[in-house]
Design a protein that fits this description.
It is built from 4 helices and 8 strands. The protein has 169 residues and is α/β, with parallel strands linked by helices.
């Protein structure tokens, strides 16, 4: 997996070549998470947000079947930490995020994995953003992931992730 770009502190770009590789990347990231962490996943329909989330939750020790919580909005899972898998696709505004109680997870005892985070961006606490892109006309499974650390904790997390993933490059 090529390392596309990195500024050494706040950004990292990677390309995965299959759904399994995307899940593997997520699993490694999940293994590095700690209580209070927020992951904000963005990208178009079909880009691989849920695939990445499946890997992240596996890395957190979740054994449940992981699906997108599009209609439920929030799925709670138990792993080595509690995990709230949230899908903001159906939220009309960032204010709705507060109305459904997402603020209760800030600095909570678990991890929040938020799909469609761009819909509630102005509301988000510090987090690690992962934007996923792909070429919908291509017949391959390549996904282009851009990581952006938004806060000191997430610069540290991104550095840890970069070091742990480096042997696979």
């Amino acid at each position: 997996m090529p390392l596309a770009a990195s500024d050494g502190l706040t950004r990292l770009a990677l390309t995965t070549r299959s759904a399994d590789e995307t899940r593997s990347l997520g699993k490694l990231l999940g293994s590095l998470l700690r209580a209070g962490d927020w992951l904000a996943l963005t990208g178009p329909v079909g880009s691989g947000k849920t695939c990445l989330a499946q890997g992240i939750l596996a890395g957190l020790g979740v054994r449940d079947r992981v699906t997108s919580p599009t209609f439920m909005l929030v799925h709670h899972h138990r792993g080595r930490l509690p995990v709230w898998h949230v899908d903001a696709y159906r939220l009309a505004s960032a204010d709705e995020a507060e109305e459904i109680g997402l603020g209760e997870f800030v600095d909570g005892p678990g991890v929040v994995v938020l799909e469609w985070a761009d819909r509630v961006a102005k509301w988000l606490p510090e987090h690690l953003e992962v934007d996923i892109a792909f070429d919908p006309g291509a017949c391959d499974q390549h996904r282009h992931l851009r990581f952006l650390a938004r806060g000191d904790r997430y610069r540290t997390l991104l550095a840890e992730f970069r070091e742990a993933w480096r042997p696979r490059l």
